[in-house]
Write a structure and sequence with these properties.
The protein has ten helices and two strands. The protein has 247 residues and is mainly α.
């Protein structure tokens, strides 16, 4: 019962959030930002960050993923409904310094995805009340979002800018740093998605990724060459690079 208590507490608090309809979501106030409160365990810690109980952590991560998907779903619903009333539009500052008016659901989706990119880069989020999340988990969540909503992302210039200014730089940095298998694997999965679904929107970034991938699998097997022996990449990383190129 002691183990089940946090799960019951978590699911009981989160279920209402998952059942809210488009008409009664309280945008930018208590909807997504309340996730940290919703993920609190009885001891006050955040389940996604602190729980040592595997089943609690699993429940928290799955539910958090559902919440993120729900936010993006509402953007799709808003897009399908047609033009948003001017009174509901809010100006958002984009990564390139410009501003753009967005509807309530599009604003939520932009804010949440921006925070996911910040969390993946070990930066503090602006919108979600979370201090940090594991990079691999966040990148898996980003992969899920892009896999399911790539067509909708391409229609939203503000989301493409997040890919360009936040996601691509952190992926390039991660693939250029000392490789750690779980993180590198997840980064290559996201890079594959970007190349497959966003190459027309991210032309320069795609070229840089391709050059880096060619460089990785073209290195000498012993790690010699321009990188030197201390920067030799493991064989498994070369295999990942070749898999992306083949795909």
């Amino acid at each position: 019962m002691a183990i089940l208590a946090p799960i019951h507490n978590l699911t009981h608090r989160l279920t209402p959030n998952l059942q809210k309809s488009t008409n009664n979501i309280e945008h930018d106030e208590t909807y997504v930002p309340s996730t940290q409160t919703d993920f609190r365990l009885p001891n006050g810690k955040v389940a996604l960050q602190e729980s040592k109980i595997a089943v609690v952590l699993s429940t928290a991560t799955v539910t958090f993923r559902q919440l993120v998907m729900f936010v993006v779903d509402q953007m799709v619903v808003e897009d399908t409904a047609g033009e948003v009333d001017a009174a509901q539009l809010s100006q958002v500052r984009l990564p390139n310094g410009t501003t753009k008016p967005l509807g309530p659901s599009a604003m939520d989706a932009f804010s949440v995805f921006e925070d996911l990119c910040l969390l993946a880069n070990s930066e503090k989020p602006h919108f979600l009340k979370l201090e940090s999340l594991h990079k691999t988990f966040v990148l898996k969540l980003i992969e899920s979002v892009l896999t399911n909503y790539h067509a909708h992302f391409r229609k939203h210039a503000e989301l493409v800018l997040l890919l360009q200014h936040h996601l691509c730089p952190l992926l390039l940095k991660a693939l250029s740093d000392h490789p750690v298998f779980p993180l590198t694997l997840q980064c290559t999965r996201v890079v594959f998605l970007l190349l497959k679904q966003f190459s027309s929107k991210l032309t320069t970034e795609s070229e840089v990724f391709l050059i880096l991938l060619i460089k990785i699998f073209s290195e000498d097997g012993d790690g010699s060459g321009n990188h030197g022996p201390h920067h030799a990449r493991p064989l498994w990383m070369k295999v990942l690079a070749m898999e992306i190129m083949r795909g």
